[in-house]
Amino acid sequence: MDRIRIRGGNTLNGTIPISGAKNAALPLMIASLLTDDQLTLENVPHLADVEQLIRILGNHGVDYTVAGKRVGQNSGMGRTIHFSARNIVDTHAPYELVSKMRASFWVIGPLLARMGRAKVSLPGGCAIGTRPVDLFIDGLRALGANIEIEGGYAIADAKAGLVGTRFVFPKVSVGATHVLMMAATLAKGETVLENAAREPEVVDLAKCLKAMGAQIEGAGTSTITITGVSQLAGARHAVLPDRIETGTFAMAVAMAGGDVTLTNTSAELLQNAIGALRQAGAEVTEMPGGLRVVRNGGGIQPVDVTTDPYPGFPTDLQAQFMGLMTRAGGTSRITETIFENRFMHVQELARLGARISLSGQTATVEGVPVLKGAPVMATDLRASVSLVIAGLVAEGETEVNRVYHLDRGFERLEEKLTACGADIVRISA
Ligand SMILES: CC(=O)N[C@H]1[C@@H](OP(=O)(O)OP(=O)(O)OC[C@H]2O[C@@H](n3ccc(=O)[nH]c3=O)[C@H](O)[C@@H]2O)O[C@H](CO)[C@@H](O)[C@@H]1O
Ligand SMILES: C=C(OP(=O)(O)O)C(=O)O
């Protein structure tokens, strides 16, 4: 198993190009199941989750060709991949494939809408809570599907086709919004989704579906209206920049100090987190196509944050912000409201000397003047990168084990940080 070794103490200076968003690329790739035409996605990041989803889609009969590869760290956009689901050969998504990744469960929506049936294993993904699928099931049933949960599978059919409905999400869910929006594009009549997720990735998916011929209004607000059409066509769409990767590097600079410009991205996607970073003492300048983050001297100020659905502070940046707060000149409180078990990084940060106590869903972080390098273990995707952020300032050597978690969602992390002066290497097993 690969490890990452960091020698702390270097500031970060330079430019980091941001990749396409994992959490946008995955639903966009799944949307290829909705049409027998070609869907071309640009700016697709090279990540373990993307490769795994390619395998899952391949199992259903989706062909793909990679048309353009990103070469070298500062070259423009990521890969262009053509997906073609001309022949769906199998509507069964088996446990061995789906259990590795949460988003793979989302194939259930397009398969039901286009094929009238699906048998999909209950999903995996980051171990950050129980992560049930009740909202997907209730929503798809509201669209007219029959669904049984049996032997670890959701077995669904809608032989007469899905039918438009009004569905009110009892809780905001990004994944269930993606799935119901995709399913409703081919349902008969109008579907209204209330209390829908407003995440930029939902807007990106809606943009692509509209380019494919779907009729969708209101994506990005809590009410999305979809008028079903009889079929969708191919399209070309560029994956949204990764706002979580952007926020992660911004926090890394705030932690290590220095002056870094993040390109191929947009500050608009993470206003709340940028506000928190400014309060923490980083200078963040928004610019066309990116942002510049500077912290030259001056300490890190303690800032309280509470995670919330978009446009609130993203749960996917909670661990990284906690990493930053371990070195603040005072005490901060970090409250997690989305996932009930997303504090696995606390005990690993403690190995580096962080002082964090947990009470319910709130972590109290007492900033310390010095962190000291130690071996630590990555427990999930964002937790692992919080350890990297802490390692950038820890005295001596920090070794992050189980970096396969990182590879799920960060493209060439060590290369991007090395280019800005960090002392970080991957040690391949
Ligand atoms: C691949 C992807 O895009 N993953 C993101 C997506 O995950 P994901 O789509 O899985 O997250 P959701 O928005 O669905 O989850 C939000 C909350 O709703 C709950 N819930 C969800 C579905 C359901 O049927 N029942 C239910 O109770 C979840 O357990 C959680 O407590 O949004 C999360 C919240 O921004 C992010 O942290 C993940 O990075
Ligand atoms: C939790 C995440 O991913 P997933 O939903 O795929 O587990 C994440 O991207 O931080």
Features:
UDP-n-acetylglucosamine1-carboxyvinyl-transferase, Chain, 429 residues, alpha/beta, elongated, cell cycle, 2 domains, 26% strand, 30% helix, Enolpyruvate_Tfrase_dom, single chain, binds uridine-diphosphate-N-acetylglucosamine, UDP_GlcNAc_COvinyl_MurA, EC 2.5.1.7
Molecular structure report:
This protein has 429 residues and is of the alpha/beta class. A hairpin with a 2-residue loop joins strand 8 and strand 9 (153-157). It is built from 14 helices and 24 strands. The chain binds uridine-diphosphate-N-acetylglucosamine and phosphoenolpyruvate. Pathway: Cell wall biogenesis; peptidoglycan biosynthesis. Its EC number is 2.5.1.7.
**Poorly predicted regions:** 71-76
**Strand arrangement across the biggest beta sheet:** 22-23-1-24
Coarse structural class = alpha/beta
Mean pLDDT: 95
How many separate helices? Answer: 14
According to CATH, the fold-level topology of the largest domain is UDP-n-acetylglucosamine1-carboxyvinyl-transferase, Chain
CA-CA gap between termini: 5 Å
Give the class-level CATH name of the largest domain. Alpha Beta
Please report which band the strand proportion falls in: under 5%, 5-15%, 15-25%, 25-35%, 35-45% or over 45%: 25-35%
Kindly report the name of the CATH homologous superfamily of the largest domain: Enolpyruvate transferase domain
Quick one: overall form?
elongated
How much helix, percentage-wise, in residues?
A: 25-40%
Bound molecules: uridine-diphosphate-N-acetylglucosamine, phosphoenolpyruvate
Radius of gyration from the CA trace?
21 Å
Number of domains: 2
| SS elements, strand count | 24
Described by strand count, sense and barrel closure, the largest sheet is: 4 strands, mixed
CATH architecture of the largest domain, by name, is: Alpha-beta prism
